[in-house]
Amino acid sequence: MDKFSELSSNARKAANLFYNWSQLANCTSERVSCLTVEHLKETSELFSALLAELEAKDKRIAELEERLKLVREQRDNELRTNAILEKRLATPVRLPTTSGRLGVAYTRVIPEVIEAIRAAGFTVEGDE
C-alpha cells in the first residue's frame, strides 16, 4: 500500500470513529468522534514521510533542471561550432596558380591535391 493510500485509510478511520461503537471510549459526551494519539501519530508519521519524499523529489527536479541547462548550453555551443565549420566548408579552397618555380611538378600533383581536398569535404575553386 502506498503512503497516500495509508493516509486516506487513516482519514477514513478517523471519520468513521463515531459509527464504530466498539471505540465509543474515544468519543466525547456529545458523541463527537475524537482521534486517538495513535491515529495522530500514524498520520503525523505519514505526513513526515510524504514531506521528505516531496523534498527529495524537489531536489531531484532541481538537479535535473541544472543538468538540462548545461546540456542546452553545450548544444548551443555545438550548433555555433557547426555553423562556423559549415561556413568554412562552403568557402572553396583556392589553389595557387602555376608559377615558373613549380613548373611540371605542380601540374602533375595538382589533380591528386584537388581530389584529397574534395575527399576531406571541401570544395575547390572552380567546382561550382
Question: What's the short version?
Answer:
The protein has 128 residues and is mostly helical. Helix content is 66%, strand content 0%. The chain has helices at residues 3-15, 37-90, 103-119.
Quickly list its features:
128 residues, mainly alpha
Give a written overview of the molecule.
This protein is an all-alpha fold and 128 residues long. The protein has two domains: 3-90; 93-128, no CATH class. The protein contains three helices and no strands. It has helices at 3-15, 37-90, 103-119. Helix 1 runs antiparallel to helix 2. It is rod-shaped, with a radius of gyration of 39 Å.
Please describe the topology of this protein:
Layout: H1 3-15, H2 37-90, H3 103-119
Low-confidence stretches: none
The proportion of strand residues reads under 5%
Output the number of helix runs.
Answer: 3
* Number of strand elements: 0
The overall number of domains is: 2
Measured between the Cα atoms of the first and last residue, the distance is: 71 Å
Q: What would you call the structural class?
A: mainly alpha
Query: What's the mean pLDDT score?
Result: 74
Roughly how many Å is the radius of gyration? Answer: 39 Å
Helix/strand order, N-terminal first: HHH
Shape: rod-shaped
Main β sheet profile: none
Q: Helix coverage percent of residues?
A: 55-70%
